[in-house]
């Protein structure tokens, strides 16, 4: 095979199919200007155009207690004023947790770190909420902010029954691909 003007050609001059460089499960959101690789079992929520926050909502098949929201980090999100991605991720997680889980409780098991995807870098924050009303299931919040060349995106994974898979959440955040 040889390259001719950026096109792959076989030895006999015939076109050679080029594999799609995007991973299996990659979903493009052209209107929002990004794509992601959805975790296994997660699909785009049909009513994503009616979201309060974000451009995309993902739900997990058989798990109505978990949701992932993803969007462009612009002025419509309270964390956008924070230039530091770690601080923005912390503020994003705090705000989303208070909005979706407004009952009083204590944040425990906090952790955070950096993210380094194929095209973006950023930071994440995770915590669990132990509600004062112990008859309620604990809630978990994972938030991330990633950027490339001054553009930023955010992601929040919320759950009040199933555990948030922090490794899977990091992989999802790192999969955010500017289009």
Automatic annotation (TrEMBL):
GO terms for molecular function: extracellular matrix binding. One of its GO terms (cellular component) is extracellular region. Its main location: secreted. InterPro entries: FAP. The keyword Transferase does not apply. Keywords: Secreted, Signal. Residues 28-178 form the Fibronectin-attachment domain. It is found in: Secreted. Belongs to the Apa family. This is Alanine and proline-rich secreted protein Apa. It comes from Williamsia marianensis. The lineage of its organism: Bacteria, Bacillati, Actinomycetota, Actinomycetes, Mycobacteriales.
């Amino acid at each position: 095979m040889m390259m001719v003007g950026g096109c792959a050609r076989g030895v006999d001059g015939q076109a050679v199919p080029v594999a799609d460089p995007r991973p299996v499960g990659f979903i493009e959101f052209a209107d929002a200007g990004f794509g992601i690789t959805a975790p296994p079992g997660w699909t785009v929520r049909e009513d994503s155009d009616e979201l309060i926050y974000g451009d995309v909502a993902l739900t997990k098949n058989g798990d109505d207690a978990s949701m992932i929201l993803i969007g462009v980090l612009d002025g419509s999100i309270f964390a956008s004023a924070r230039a530091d991605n770690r601080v923005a991720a912390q503020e994003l997680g705090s705000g989303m947790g208070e909005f979706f889980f407004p009952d009083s409780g204590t944040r425990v098991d906090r952790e955070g770190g950096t993210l380094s995807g194929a095209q973006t870098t950023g930071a994440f924050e995770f915590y669990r909420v132990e509600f004062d009303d112990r008859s309620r299931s604990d809630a978990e919040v994972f938030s991330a902010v990633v950027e490339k060349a001054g553009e930023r995106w955010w992601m929040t994974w919320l759950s009040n029954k199933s555990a948030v898979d922090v490794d899977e959440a990091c992989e999802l955040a790192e999969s955010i691909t500017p289009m």
